[in-house]
């Protein structure tokens, strides 16, 4: 498997350290610049195929679709030449979405402590909420569908699960891996690393 993963560019929620999860929050100007820069990086890299020879896939959320279109444009491709896959939607933080962890700690300090003891399996309150372990099951289904070299725009949580699944990073370490918005992750077979 050859897969290039790009995290969506910065949003105001990212800047404010708010849990955005499955909320559809748009990119900010910094995020748009990050997306363009990632597209320029791709265009300048010696790749295994021409850019238009890759499958291009994005999470269907607006921040990932806008990132994808800016990446493709900056790389010299038409912006809409990609498909979306709902398996790539970000981890849902349920009732915590829109809040910072400090705000959550004010009303639910016991849950913050529980999360700190085991972030990979912790599921916030709310019917839609997911743990990283649950998200990893979705990621597995996406990975099973990858049958040709692919460039993908997704979310920090999705990319963390790739470190656990492909990079064999232990669960709790994978749950806290820093996922930059201005770099590209290359997965080639069982090798995983930032470009």
UniProtKB/TrEMBL annotation:
One of its GO terms (molecular function) is phosphatase activity. GO terms for cellular component: cytoplasm. Substrate binds at residues 7-14, 63. SUPFAM superfamilies: Phosphoglycerate mutase-like. InterPro entries: His_Pase_superF_clade-1 (IPR013078), His_PPase_superfam (IPR029033), PG/BPGM_mutase_AS (IPR001345), PGM_Phosphatase (IPR050275). Pfam families: His_Phos_1. This is Fructose-2,6-bisphosphatase. The lineage of its organism: Bacteria, Pseudomonadati, Pseudomonadota, Alphaproteobacteria, Hyphomicrobiales.
